[in-house]
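Moderator note: this is an archived Q&A kept for reference. The question asked for a predicted structure of one protein chain; the sequence and the answer are reproduced below.
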Amino acid sequence: MACTDKRGSLKKVTRWALGGMAAGLVAASACASGRVAASAAAASGPAASSASSACTPAWPRWEQFKHGFLSSDGRVIDVGSADDRTVSEGQAYALFFALVANDRATFDEVLRWTENNLASGDLTSHLPSWLWGKDKDGNWHVLDANPASDADLWIAYTLLQAGELWHERSYTARGTVLARHIAEQETATLPGLGLTLLPGPQGFHPAPDEWRVNPSYAPLQVLRGLAEQLPGDARWKSLTESASTVLLDTAPQGFAPDWARYHAGQGFLPDTDTKAKGSYDAIRVYLWAGMLDPAQPGAKKLLARLTPFADYIVRHGAPYESVDTTNGQTTNEGNAGFSAAAVPFLMALGQSAAADAQAARVQSLDARDPPGYYTSVLTLFGLGWRDGLYRFKADGTLNVRWGAACSGPSR
């Protein structure tokens, strides 16, 4: 396929013919990457050096993450897991971090691996499978084909934001179609709640009047951003509104659970499988809430509801690892990733001293023990936000530090 300039107004996505679309999109992305590389090679002199520095903000933690967890072909590996697994969530987060870092080469590698190995070669036709790894016979392949909506949301959102920032319609087109599949396959209309995000297409509707939800799967800024980018699809506004209710009503004591159940006529009840625990999933609820723009609808109310989490940290000097969300009884101290996730939340509440203490705790714990995959992800999100590498606007749009200097015309 010949390289052609595909730049222009990315909010007016053309209707692509779905037949053969994936191959064309990959080729277009490769052509765009070639244009970027050619432009970089042609630049020289002090001015070019200064511009290059502004366009690639220093982010040592991202470089460390790539060195420790990212294969040369774009697979995020949960190093230390029994099967060296890859989960779609990890691929989604890596795409987001690569965009924040203006690391387009890594972005394209991660996207290519994700599409080829988790989505049967075409994200416009298949939601990505959530789990890939080595089976008991030593063969590498998809181990569980059920998608996970948290990963799918982040991938769709990041593709749409990348399309804007890098002026690349192939990303925008893929993000648009993927978002449509999410709305069609990973949602349900719950009585009294409306259209609601489910954790995946299968396994979360155990009885005719019962559904299982995961509050951490629905960052309000991501949902709001999808609604902004896809104004013709009213489902995203509905999903944002129901997600706000899920976040508030599953935390009546101010502590977010990993999972909850919704019963028609009864509302939200503690999840029996996880015994109402809030831990490694729920820590992301506070992270996402802390990074909301204060002007986004529902942000202040959510921060107020979850304030007991901040109060606990101020009293004890560290987040808990696990809490019984029905009574506030806690177990153990959270790791460095929990502290990193708490930083934006504490900052949003004006607890700057507590936020600084948690950031220092991250540095201390990381120096003692190298962080694993999930701790590293939480740290990239939390401390990357603290360092001003990115922000979310009230309409969900992503602002990146390099954007003003390097993304071309005003968005």
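Archived answer notes: Residues 1-44 have pLDDT under 50 and may be disordered.
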